[in-house]
Amino acid sequence: MSAHPTDAVLDLLMGHQRLLHDGDGTHGRRCARCRDAQRGRIDVHVRAGRAIPMLLPAFPAKSPNPDKVLGHLPDLAEELSIAFLEELCARVAEVHPPGAHLIICSDGRVFNDVVGIPDAHVSAYQREMADVLRRLGTAHISLYSLDDVYPGTDPAAMRRKLWADHAPELEALRDEVRGGGPMLGLYRGITRFLYEDARTPAFQGSNATLQRESRKRAYEVIGRSQAWGNLLSVLHPDAVRLSIHPQPCGHEKFGIFLQHTGDEDRWLTPWHAVAVEERGRFRLMKHRAAKDAGGRLVLRDGRPSHYVLPTTDHPTSSKG
């Protein structure tokens, strides 16, 4: 007997779940807590016979650190992830004919000034991402950003408006981080990103100062991200909420990988890494690591695209 469409959709999503493995009782794809947390939002659309809306805050802009990325424009790393997400939505349509529609809510404009990315780079990244979708012919994915919320508004004014209307209290965020749990893990992950992104070849300060500044800016990034999420909840109250970050078991947000296989580093994303081909398969690596591994840079239309790692075949030794 075939599975109910809601269960079939859940099976597809949970096959690519990005989960916090913190001993909280989860049991993988069949975890009842994880399924129950998403079932209602999916089932209401299935029963109504309409496409399942899904929101994914992601694809903000490339890291400003050249040791992590090839440049400030999307490359094969983004294309592979978009192709994967489009394929996932198409598979949803096989078990629920109205399908799914994924809105990628690009959050680069939300916090790029805190991360050290110019607004011009965010604009160029967003334009190129639109070109990626057109080039791949995606039928189930669209892009949305703060520019769509406040058209024609100065970027700094956009951010001030978002913060004033939707941001949490920073002191409440600090209390939540001090309380431990998933928020502490998120804070540490964001702090690590900020520290790494700021350690460019031009950096001249001390590690201690950079670590202190990164911890301070992490609260700002998390607060703005929550403000963006709060706004999206108002605009799309019935959508399934996806996240690039690992989520605890049973959370209202569903953590999802952006490719077929998860990387060794669960925090690695296309905008903090490069695509690397090895023996016909792609994975993500930091730019410096790909170069140090002897990777060969591949250009496409004159622009850096990805790396190909050398294959090393070790002869099998025999013992007599």
Task: Provide a descriptive summary of the structure in words.
This protein is 47% helix and 14% strand. It has one domain. A hairpin with a 2-residue loop joins strand 6 (274-278) and strand 7. Helix 1 runs antiparallel to helix 3 (76-95), helix 7 (155-166) packs across helix 10 (207-235) and helix 9 packs across helix 10. It contains 11 helices and 9 strands. It is an alpha/beta fold and 320 residues long. The strands form 2 sheets. Strands 3-2-1-4-5 form a 5-stranded parallel β-sheet. The chain has helices at 5-14, 32-48, 76-95, 108-115, 119-136, 146-149, 155-166, 170-178, 182-198, 207-235, 287-292, and strands at residues 52-57, 100-106, 141-145, 240-243, 254-255, 274-278, 281-285, 296-300, 303-308.
Output the helix-strand order: HHEHEHHEHHHHHEEEEHEE
Largest sheet: 5 strands, parallel
Q: Give the overall form.
A: globular
SS-based class: alpha/beta
Q: Work out the strand percent.
A: 5-15%
Helix content: 40-55%
Contiguous runs where pLDDT drops below 50 for at least 5 residues: 23-28, 314-320
CA distance, first residue to last residue: 55 Å
Largest sheet, order of strands side by side?
3-2-1-4-5
Please tally the β strands and state the result: 9
Count of discrete structural domains: 1
Using only CA atoms, what is the Rg? 20 Å
The number of helical runs is: 11
Mean pLDDT: 89
Distinctive features:
single chain; 320 residues; alpha/beta; five-stranded parallel sheet; four-stranded mixed sheet; 11 helices; disordered C terminus
